[in-house]
User: What shape does this take?
Amino acid sequence: MRARNRLSAAFVKRAPAGKWCDGAGLWLVKRDDGGAQWVLRYTLHGRRREMGLGGGDVPLAEARRIAERWRAVAAVGRDPMKERDAEIRAARRDDITLAVLTADAFEARKSELRDEGKAGRWMSPLEVHVLPKLGKVPVTDIDQRDIRDVLAPIWHGRGAESAEKALNRIGIVLKHAAALGLEVDLQAPAKARALLGKSRRERKHIPAVHWRDVPTFYATLAEPTITHLALRLVILTGVRSKAIRFLRLDQIDGDVWIAPAEIVKGRKGKTVDFHVPLSPEALRVIELARPFERYGYLFPSARKGVISDATMARLMERRGMDERPHGFRSSLRDWLADCTEAPHEVAETVLGHVAGSKVVKSYRRTDFLDQRRVLMCRWADHVTGETGKVVKLVGAG
Assistant: This one.
C-alpha cells in the first residue's frame, strides 16, 4: 500500500461516512450527514495534534498542497496551528495596530494603576507623542527606528520625562502583544534607547524650603482659610498634597489618620492603608478646618469635589517662591537626617515609602507608628517655632 496519495478524487466525492487516510497524516473525515472535513495529524514535541484544513469542498490536490506546507512547518519544530493563527491575525491588520494593542494593554492593567488608570495619565505620553504617528502601524512592524523617530524630538528637551515614560510603556505594549502570540521585537525599546543616546536634559528636583526656614513660612499661614489650613497640614504630616485634599473626617481615629491605600502614592505593592500619626498641632489645624467640611471632605472646592492640586502651589507662586508644596516632604526628610537619630527605615516610613529589600518587606509587619508619633510631634514643635534637641528614639536602633 502506498504511504502517500492513497485516495483518489473520485473516491473523495463518493466516500461513505468514516475516516479515510490519504497518507502522511492527511485524513478525510466524512460525517453521517454527508459533510466532510480535511484534517492533518502531526506530532510536535511528543504531543499529537489535529489541525483542520478545510471542508469537503476543498479539492484533494489542494488539501495535499496545504498539508505539505504545514508538515514542513512542524518538521522544523514550529506549531502549524499557532503559525496559522498568527497569519490570520496579521491579515486583519486593523486588529493589531499599535493603537488597538495599546488600548488593550491599558485595559488589562488599569486595575493596577489606581488613580492613574482613571485619570488616563498612563496613556497620556503615548497619546501625545507616539500614537499620532505610529498608532495605525501594526505592532509586528514596529522597530527601533520607528520608536527613535517619534521620541527623538523630545528626548533631550523639556519633554524628556514624557519620552522616558512613553518608551517604557511601548515596551509594556509589545510584551502584551507577544503574550497574545504576535511576533514583535521585544528588544525594540532597548535598541531605540541606544539609538537615542543618554538624555542631555538634567532632571530637576522640586524646589524645597530648607527645614530651617519652614517655621518662618508656616507662620505666614495665619489665616483660617482652606488653602492656608491645607498647606499647614501638608507641612505637618509630610503626606502628599493629594491625600490631604481628599482627607475625610471619618478617616481620623484619635490621633491617627488612616489614609486609604489608593490615595497614598509611593507604596508600590502595598494594599493596606497608611497610618499617619497626628501631632497636637495637626489636630488643631483639623479642628480649624471642620467648619469647611462638605460631603465628608475637609477641604472641599467652592464648586464640587475637593480643592485642586494647584491651589496650594498657586499661593506659593503668587508670593514669588520657586518652591512648591511637594517640596515640604524633602524639608521634613532633611530635618529627619540632620536633627534626629531616626533609623533609615523609620525616616522613610514617615514619608510613606516602603524601605528595604523584597525579603525585608515581605517579613516586616510594623509601620513604626510609635516612633513616627514621637518624630512628628518634634517636627511640629520645630515648625511652630519651638527649637528642640536631637531626637533619640528609644528601642528604634
About this structure: The chain has 19 helices and seven strands. Residues 266-270, 357-364 have pLDDT under 50 and may be disordered. The beta strands are 18-23, 26-30, 36-44, 47-55, 252-253, 256-259, 274-277.
